[in-house]
Design brief:
The structure is a homotetramer. By secondary structure, chain A is of the alpha/beta class. Chain A folds into 2 domains: about 170 residues, Rossmann fold (3-Layer(aba) Sandwich); about 160 residues, Dihydrodipicolinate Reductase, domain 2 (2-Layer Sandwich), CATH 3.30.360.10. Helices cover about 30% and strands about 25% of the residues of chain A. Chains in contact: A-B, A-C, A-D, B-C, B-D, C-D.
Chain lengths: ~325, ~325, ~325, ~325
């Protein structure tokens, strides 16, 4: 029997999770919600995905456009075992009451506070914590990226300082700037460090900056080491770490642009780069400090986490079995 | 029997043409050339494509990287019936002597002068002209875009004035600017008008501007009409024109970003948008002037043209048969 | 006796007009309004400019920051003969009732509808129309730019088609995008043509596009000529036209960036380029069509217009006398 | 008697240093060199600055444009006591032989290796080291920025880790990208740390990233403290440190754009922000770690250093006397 999944919010994350759900043999996509009949809604319909209005207030929009919806979010909730809430940050918390009332499990995204859910989740770091839970939060793209590499080298970590250079807007979000400026988060350390700590116990401080690009976030990471290690050992660990990939500048990976080009060359759907990209040349140890640079594809790195979270919540698979199945279904390399 | 195709230059255009050739049942990809063993070269190898050095001078680079090449361009030329020259603008003309010496037919791209080839080519406009020819030039992305829509409405055209707002660099070209400026081509009319005239006889003048974006070019087109026509007739014509697609701002297509998102939603390889995108709301007739706005995906719109050009040069198919087969193989909509 | 001027809205335009007013020997700046105590408010105070809260609702903000304001807009209105409304587009119309009630004359900016005022104004085109008027609208930066060059060559103009490539946001507006896209105005012709017609009777159609840059707008202009003229005659006219400057690509003016660099080299305040910049090489006549390309510094080109409008409204000077005095005070070249 | 100064290279840095030299009462600008007669050359002439060809090979360019030059670099060297080499990085070292031959003192910029000169210089950190020297290197904009704030708090510093988010190109350099990507320096630690150590002995490691903006560099700085200190003490120190200014996000300084707007509001020539900008809210101490964020105006922060270097080389003034005079002449705040 397949677990029945609904997606509330069919945008950047929601449409990718919907796609991923459709590729799992133990899940069934029951429908998605939209607030307006835009081209993404039409595409969902073309793909045979039932489209619901996100709430009654939006029904008129669909009617005006002669776009038939199956019903509203309330109707969708009646049909599912779990709802993936991929609404804009902060809305998930408001939606939770509805999910509780209907008695469906729910996955929230990283835009919600940790307290919205029972567990903050990154599959390879704490899958077991989500077993059987009703409310799980898949942490943000940046927190997921930090957690993937840091959990792999956790035994060496005394303290982490990570500087995050963030993309200003997603590729299809043309409203937000800046066009030509660097915007610092002036509260240092930023909130991202504590967010990592909702997943793994680690000593971490961060700062964050917004820059005018759309492709990926980049993290400059420095680790104070707890015990000696060499750069090649760290590289070996990353090579053995799922959802982390090493890239060489020497092969032409000069910037985030070529990382995305790599995903395009693979013909990944939406050029998704589910894996955290670490520049091999950047991994370096000097004295008791480890340095490395990684990039995060903010549109897709959390997608496999949503799938694994579902399996954990319904105790459908052991940790590594779930991760393996998710990876294979999405073509995740290693 | 399949026509044997080689690609000289496996970059933005070359890799897409290679992919397209591999999807044709009447063509066989014999190999591609590279100047360096970058990630695109490794990807070619993974795909089972024979990789050649673009010339002997580059062999050392491949040796240093322990990257085995099959040979050099000269070796590839021995094995093919036709070479698609996708080298940077101006190099094709210099390569021509080599092609002539080896006796292979050659397709050049729009960065070469018209005189480099016997015909300047856009399949739906002048396929027949390329029948049996040895040297064909597929015109530039912009010229292809202008020709596709203008040839469809040619009977109404007295004079065209097109302003082209060009992307500064391709997505994976991170060397070129500008970062924050608009660069006009100060020679007005620009060379693009005469370039259209190498394909179709039409009265056209153009100007061109470079702006800091990577996604697509945009054309603002004004036509002095030869005879009356209504906007809806023009829309009907464009709906019936192959490799032209209409998009509605009302459905969320606010900018070039959403056009690319559409291609990503289709899971098009490299988010190729082979079709010229016309904004439906922009098509308007005022008195004897027709206005419309279109966008051109510079990385991919000429790809189907290269395939059709091969068929024409070897007289392998009639015009509409070739176009239909190319379209189907690439998932081109309408 | 000096005319007493207030500025409602001390932002991009307002602060420049305030500066310009302070440089006139027949005007006195009585104060400016702000909605918040930001660095521009502190700068105003440093310059000795009386700062007022834009309305009572904002007083709390100033109190919290211990920023003393002289009063509110209402108080300022008591002290002035004329208020320059430089509030965001659309607010001017709402403010008008207040100005009427207080009996002060008012200048509105181009973000307001033409019907908000008695005259839409560009000094060199229709100064006389504003003589003695109570409500004058200085048209938008783009309309001002089009009007300046087109009014100079009006006798040759049968029809104008202008394509406007617009900056996405002003340099210090970091909220607005797009970061990486071209956004067309899909309603073609756009509203800019009719806006020019509120100033001069001319046959004009326009289209408009937004691109990710902050520096200047660029216009690609094509004129159907009413009578023959040569490019050099047009150049001569532009050389004799006030507030229009010719720039040569040959001297390094490759883009809008170098035009701004020119203003910086002049040590213009805020790198203001009050003059419309025409690329000399772009002026060309082909048959009965004239082409030229111009750039508009959106932050400053309307500033001298506001000054001249004040003089006209109070009949303080004849047209060319006012223009000359404004030009000299601001260092406008020619 | 005034020291006679020449500038080799009248570009971004050279023209600003020329301006600054002209504002000193103990220096005389004898001339500048140019490689081509672009608008900057014409501006120099307008300002009465003698213009020389950078070498004989460029004379033809000037002749073709009917631009009279006084002579070539060799001629200029005959007339000066000191030459400020503001040529592109790496050229200074090649020019040195010529300077030695002519027996003039020379100042190099940060694009040269430290070994090119006798001293690497930041006035407030090591003015005395340059006293009487013949060859002094003013370090790069980034190194100057790091040195200014770090030398002020040096007694508290055990180790510094600074992440530098660099602008891709200067505002009037429209050739360089990237347009839409983040480019990491994959060699970590980067060369910037050792460069700071050419000026002050400090334990520092850095990493560097290029992002698509033109305005300023931004540094995210973390200091392992040698002894306890509170954030407010650090703020007090920075407030007392020359050529360092504190800015509050609360007053609207949200990004580098508003910092530049501040310089524009001051009517600084070329919107120069000679001072290193530290965001007040970013200064924070957590345990034994100090955090702060600063921005560097790459076009201008080294300008006062060039002036002070001249005074030191000719022993014209004591350290603080020189700094004070330079500051006053350029309107440097505090």
């Amino acid at each position: 029997m397949k677990v029945k999944v609904g997606i509330n919010g069919y945008g950047t994350i929601g449409k990718r999770v919907a796609y991923a759900v459709m590729r799992q043999d133990d899940m069934k996509l029951m429908g998605v919600t939209k607030t307006r009949p835009d081209f993404e809604a039409y595409r969902a319909k073309e793909l045979g995905i039932p489209v619901y209005a996100a709430s009654e207030e939006f029904l008129l929009r669909f009617e005006k456009a002669d776009f038939d919806v199956v019903g509203t979010l309330g109707d969708l909730l009646e049909k599912v075992d779990v709802i993936v809430d991929a609404t804009p940050g902060g809305m998930g918390a408001r939606n939770k009451a509805l999910y509780e009332k209907t008695g469906v499990k729910a996955i929230f995204q990283g835009g919600e506070k940790a307290t919205t859910a029972e567990v903050s989740f990154v599959a390879q770091a704490n899958y077991e914590k989500a077993l059987g839970k009703d409310y799980v939060r898949v942490v943000s793209c940046n927190t997921t990226g930090l957690t993937r590499t840091l959990s792999a080298i956790q035994e060496y970590v005394d303290h982490v300082y990570a500087v995050m250079i963030r993309r200003a807007a997603d590729p299809n979000d043309t409203r937000r700037g800046p066009v030509n400026a660097i915007t610092p988060g002036v509260t240092v350390p930023s909130h991202h460090g504590p967010d990592v700590q909702t997943v793994i116990p680690i000593n971490i401080e961060t700062s964050a900056f917004i820059v005018p690009t759309t492709l990926m976030h980049v993290h400059s990471i420095m680790v104070d080491l707890k015990k000696p290690v060499e750069a090649k050992d760290i590289i070996d660990i990353f090579e053995d770490t799922t959802r982390v990939l090493l890239f060489e500048k020497e092969k032409g990976f000069e910037s985030t642009a070529q990382l995305i080009e790599f995903a395009r060359d693979l013909h990944r759907e939406w050029n998704n780069l589910y894996e955290i990209a670490v520049w091999r040349e950047s991994v370096n140890v000097r004295g008791n400090r480890l340095f490395y640079i990684q990039a995060v594809h903010q549109e897709s790195d959390v997608v496999p986490e949503n799938i694994d979270a579902i399996r954990a919540m319904f105790e459908m698979a052991e940790k590594w079995d779930s991760i393996r199945r998710t990876n294979e279904s999405l073509g995740i390399v290693g």
